[in-house]
Amino acid sequence: MADDDKHSNETAVALAALIAQHFNLDLSSGEGALLDRGLSFDSVALIQLIVLLEEHFGIGFEEDELRMESFTDLRSLSALVGEKIRRRA
């Protein structure tokens, strides 16, 4: 269980850094909706985010996994990405 927590935290930190750098956002406080922090989810931004995640983490998303609620905040996005990484391993 401790390893899962460690990997989840590492994924969340890497995810926040990646999104902050690519989309020029301040995610230093860690919590809160991505939309509240300036990330607007038009179709182009969402596709950019998905491609960025797939390339950086070496994962792929299935169409049924691409629900908007998974992309609204760092916690839910980190959970989705972390699950994809664990399934890949």
Average pLDDT? 81
Radius of gyration, whole Å: 12 Å
CATH class category label: Mainly Alpha
- The SSE string, one letter per element, is HHH
CATH architecture: Orthogonal Bundle
Strand segment tally: 0
CATH topology: Non-ribosomal Peptide Synthetase Peptidyl Carrier Protein, Chain A
Q: Which regions have little confidence, pLDDT < 50, spanning 5+ residues?
A: none
Which strand-content bin applies to the residues? Answer: under 5%
Please identify which CATH superfamily we are dealing with.
Answer: ACP-like
SS element count, helices:
3
Summing up helix and strand content along with how strands pair, one would put the structural category as mainly alpha
Bin the helical content: 55-70%
Please indicate the count of domains. Answer: 1
Short descriptors:
89 residues; Non-ribosomal Peptide Synthetase Peptidyl Carrier Protein, Chain A; 58% helix
Structure, explained:
The model has no long low-confidence stretch (mean pLDDT 81). It is built from three helices and no strands. It has a single domain, classed as ACP-like (Non-ribosomal Peptide Synthetase Peptidyl Carrier Protein, Chain A), CATH 1.10.1200.10. The chain is globular and about 30 Å long. By secondary structure, it is mainly α.
Give a short synopsis of this structure.
With 89 residues, this protein is mainly α. The protein has helices at residues 2-23, 43-57, 74-88. It has three helices and no strands.
